[in-house]
Amino acid sequence: MADGVSAEDSRTQRERMLAGDLYVADDPQLAAESLRAMTLSARYNASAPDDPQERDRLLGELLGELLGELLGSVGAGTVIRPPLHCDYGYQIRIGSRTFINFGLMALDVARITIGDDVQMGPNVQLLTPTHPVEAGPRRAKWEAAKPITIGDNVWLGGGVIVLPGVAIGDNTVVGAGAVVTKALPANVVAVGNPARIVRHVDPEG
């Protein structure tokens, strides 16, 4: 065992990452995939002209092109305002009719699933990576990740931070600036750091 990782494990670092196990990000294959994501997202982020009508037309085209190439999947009618930043892109799945405002930071070391009809304010952070608390493995650059799931019709206010392994249920609202450290059920409003439930909402209201 070295730093808690078996020497007999013959998997690639990418295979370890996708399995949710400890891996080293400083790996040629992962570096190439990260560079691809940075290149595609940079093209997307530089794409919006000043004219609003031209911007909307161009973003509509790019949704099926650059975003379709960058992300794992994107549903019909979804809008993502640049800039968008991600680690790999292909681990991000977004449903239909979702609106994501400027500055999404989606670190998709693990799967990020975003449902239908979701609304996100500017500068939301979806953070799947984790690092060992122990000093030795962290110094050796081992890391891991836990998936994030955002349900249908969720509203994340501006600056919300969602931490690794968190799931947020359908129709839930998270107030601006909240830090979501653990799962939130459906049909609630949560605010603060750490986010706490302050009321329930009627899913049919």
Structure description:
The chain is of the alpha/beta class and 205 residues long. It has a single domain (13-200), classed as Hexapeptide repeat proteins (UDP N-Acetylglucosamine Acyltransferase, domain 1, 3 Solenoid), CATH 2.160.10. Helices cover 23% and strands 26% of the residues. It has five helices and 20 strands. The protein has helices at 13-18, 28-45, 52-64, 66-70, 135-139, and strands spanning 23-24, 73-74, 79-80, 84-86, 92-94, 99-100, 104-107, 112-114, 119-120, 125-127, 129-130, 142-145, 148-150, 155-156, 161-162, 167-168, 173-174, 179-180, 188-191, 196-200. It has a seven-stranded mixed β-sheet with strand order 3-6-9-14-17-19-20. The chain has a five-stranded parallel β-sheet with strand order 2-5-8-13-16, with no helix packed on it. A hairpin with a 4-residue loop joins strand 19 and strand 20 (196-200). 31% of the residues are buried. The mean pLDDT is 91.
Query: Hey, roughly how much beta strand do the residues contain?
Result: 25-35%
What is the domain total for the residues?
A: 1
The CATH superfamily turns out to be: Hexapeptide repeat proteins
Uncertain segments: none
**Broad shape:** globular
How many strand units?
Answer: 20
Mean pLDDT: 91
How large is the radius of gyration? 18 Å
Distance between the first and last residues' Cα: 55 Å
Helix run count? 5
CATH class label: Mainly Beta
Q: Which sequence of strands runs across the widest sheet? A: 3-6-9-14-17-19-20
Approximate helicity band:
10-25%
Write the CATH architecture name: 3 Solenoid
Supply the key terms.
5 helices, UDP N-Acetylglucosamine Acyltransferase, domain 1, alpha/beta
